[in-house]
Amino acid sequence: MASPWSLYVKILWLFPLAVITAMGANTRVQWDARLKLSHQEMKNGSAVYWGGGTSGGIQVLLLDEDHGRLLVGGKDHIHMLSSDSVDLPWNTVSWPAADEAVQRCLIIGKSLHDDCANFVRLLQAVNDTHVYVCGTGAFRPQCGLLRVGLGEAFSLLPHTVTAGRGKCPYSPKEPFAAHLSDGDIYAGTSVDFMGINAAIFRTSIGAGGRHLRTEAYDHNWLNVPQFVASFAIAETHNAADDKIYFFFREAAVEAEPWDKKIYSRVARVCKNDMGGRRSLINRWTTFLKARLVCSVLGPSGVHTHFDELEDVFVMETKDPQNAVIYGLFRTSSSLLAGSAVCAFSMASIRASFNGPFAHQDSPDHRWVEFKGRIPYPRPGACPSETYDALHESTEDFPDEVVNFMRRHQLMWEAVLPVGGRPVFTRVNVSYLLTSLLVDRLDIEGRTTDVLFLGTDDGKVLKVMASTTEEILLEELSVFQSGVAIRQMKISSKKQQLYVSSEGGVAQLSFHRCHLYADCSECRLSGDPYCAWDGQTCSPHFVSGRRSSRGHDPAYGESWSRCPITDDFLGDEKVMYGMEGNASFLECFHRSPQAALSWTLQRRNERHHLPVSKDERLVRTSGGLLLQRLQLADDGIYTCSSGEGKYVRIVSRFRLHVIPASVLHPTQGPPASTQGLAATWPVSTKERKVAERYCEQLWFRDKRRQHKVFTFKLKHGSSKARVRRNQLPHATI
């Protein structure tokens, strides 16, 4: 009888398979990228690089499209690069931590290289001439103003440098989110060097202002949060209703005590929140939070959740109140590594905040939907004329409302993604996604979103967003393997991406149209930034709108606009094979989405027929293997690559099968070829064919011997160098 432990181990082994099977049954096929470029190929012209200066430690980017500059926050320095070409640094400001702070940082056991320096974590534009900047200050946060002038001029204003507690984290490794709006910094960060006391703060960048924060050490408000992003999003046409949204992940208080789950959250506060008068003094009185769900439904009705939020991008629309929120998530299970991107509408987020509240009578009770009376004005609403002109400030809220807010921050209904599923998933691959950008296109009156995704091994993926199929266009190795992408910025105006790692910045275009050789490849690429102009595959961009000569992958058959030809433009390869031996006909896919097919035109026949299924014939992704050749295998083999309804010839082979009797005339033909032996007389012509076959084998053997000899020569010389560098043996 199996022990409980062995059964437990078997369950652990089977769990990932069950999850993968469940996901695979209801998810789309994970196609490989159509275009892949190695890091060396990127360095050879597909990207521009800047090496990070002398200190590295890059944490944050700020793109100023109007003035053509990119600010880079690193270790003890702030760099200004040209957004036209990042390999041309304009200027650098040195901003090291104070010596006293460095010594104190070392005393508490931190690393001089990794911790005890001023790592710039925040760069936010105040106006056209000033940027607000914050750094860790060797575990003593500090903030100040940068003056940015025309061109390359910029400098730090020393008299503006103040303590950055509540605006910037102590550690360069702590997740952090902040947004500057109307002179106030809204920040999700900790206020102690151990990173325990985390909260959402509002502080002013100047003198005065009303400072607010979430309640300290209350897990119902925030439970070990890891902040990701923060944005200001309009609620109505009345500015008094404007809110600041925070996106983060935290330990779920509503989960069972033994189930240590991480949930992703969206929270919001009113910009005009002034705290309470008698309760919640200097605390948020409008703070609410809801769960963000990004999951895939399996065939058994069980969801596979991507619970850990990693990055957020707000795609603005023509209506500023109804942006699309893109979230990048990871699985929290150590048994199944994967990432997913989900899109959320502001309507669904507001519906959750306007829905029922979650309630817990005591720590020993379960969380349930609150069924009691909700006080007026509704908790979480901003004081404005939109709802009630009598309440001009949160200090005017009735005690009943403030007391309700003290106990009810969590909403009962979660926020579900658009379409009920992710727009892109990646599971069981060698990388995880780290960062997210989105570019929206208008193709023939139809909006299409293109995702740019950074990975933890230096890649950038370009993806067409879709809830019906996954379209992975490109996989670009921007940095070396093992170098994580930290942050990305996008310039839709210039069609450029700016990608940072800890040690440098790369700049790359949205498209690589020149790599598609002909019309069909250009069309089949599915790249919305490329179009065939009649001669080349070229970038196509007209005032934010793609015209009809561009192509939309959703329309499917854009390749039909290309000239149709059945001619094979390549060289027909002549190959020889000996009866009874094996031959391999090499043929590769035109793209990962294509399928190979083979036809055969036998000798003295006029038609190409599909290669029949035979246990001797093995189809692989790289070609066709013919085992135990027979005389009937002689003929012209054509390999075609098909994608949808489009088919093109990739390669063609003329295979000559030489009878065994030609090389061994004393032996009779094999039993399997008794009926065909008469068609292969041992003539002068056939002997010449045999001689060519032997000549091919002879050259192949010579090349193999040359490679072995070269290897031995190199290996022997390296051993000789080792011997020359060794110390002489002591004499006896």
From TrEMBL:
GO terms for molecular function: chemorepellent activity; semaphorin receptor binding. The keyword Membrane applies. GO terms for biological process: axon guidance; circulatory system development; neural crest cell migration; positive regulation of cell migration; semaphorin-plexin signaling pathway; tube development. It is found in: Membrane; Secreted. One of its GO terms (cellular component) is extracellular region. PANTHER family: SEMA DOMAIN-CONTAINING PROTEIN, SEMAPHORIN. This is Si:dkey-49n23.1. It comes from Hippocampus comes (Tiger tail seahorse).
